[in-house]
Amino acid sequence: xxxxxxxxxxxxxxxxxRLLDRIGPEGxxxxxxxxxxxxxxxxxxxxVRRGDFADAASLAHAFEGASRVLVxxxxxxxxxxxxxxxxxxxxxxxxxxxVVYTSxxxxxxxxxxxxxxxxxxxxAVLRNSGTAFTSLRNGFYAASALMLLGTAxxxxxxxxxxxxxxxxxxxxxxxxxxxxxxxxxxxxxxTPALTGAEAVDLAGVAAIASELTGRSIRRVVxxxxxxxxxxxxxxxxxxxxxxxxxMFAASRRGAFAEVDPALGRLLGRPPxxxxxxxxxxxxx
Length: 284
Description:
Elements: E1 2-5, H1 10-23, E2 28-32, H2 39-43, E3 47-50, H3 56-62, E4 68-71, H4 79-94, E5 98-104, H5 115-129, E6 133-138, H6 142-149, H7 152-155, E7 157-160, H8 171-183, E8 189-194, H9 202-213, E9 218-221, H10 224-233, H11 238-252, H12 262-267, H13 274-282
Parallel strand pairs: 1-2, 1-4, 2-3, 4-5, 5-6, 6-8, 7-9
Helix pairs in contact: 1-8, 4-5, 9-13, 10-11
Protein name: SDR family oxidoreductase
Pfam family, one: NAD_binding_10
Organism: Saccharothrix syringae
């Protein structure tokens, strides 16, 4: 059985539904903190069990009978995140399962973007675990480009700190890659970067959005502290503001600029371009 953790989240749910279509409900299990939110999966025949990375006993039950476990990285940072990942990895290993972990392009102990050292540390845990694993070096979600556009669609100004090119990658493409890793043997250990086919900075994002909407959107570079102050003034928590600034700092270093053909080879088709992703989302 293939177990998908985080099956109530965007990536986890996309993986679970694709697995349903690929191998049928008898081969799919969902590990979620709130089983009530996964009733639709249960109604389709998926085994849904409560599992929390902070509760090793719950994971032992959720991972029972697993041959492979998708460990979706948590939405917190720091040592707490690494320990939660460690608990999930150890539970999967105890179940005799292979771990498929959702890491990230730019995973680096020295990165200024907080999730990146956590991914690097988790990959070290995997290497030392004695458990068979695949660590998916996922590209930066294209949905983040849409988020960064934010009010620019209304104001005509995409105001943000200095940035660098990013190989934006669609959730759906990464979900398909995860399914390939969970159902096949083509990926082992730390994968190449699984990215879109081009790297685009925010000036490029603004230009694409201008073309798609027919409205002029210009890129405006603001100082880091000015941007942080604006976020805090709009009620964004301090840790979130610092995390966003770390993302821009890492992108300026080129941490997310790598473009690799691995994802296209895995999918058997070109990854969805940022332009097409934005076209679809902006039409909603």
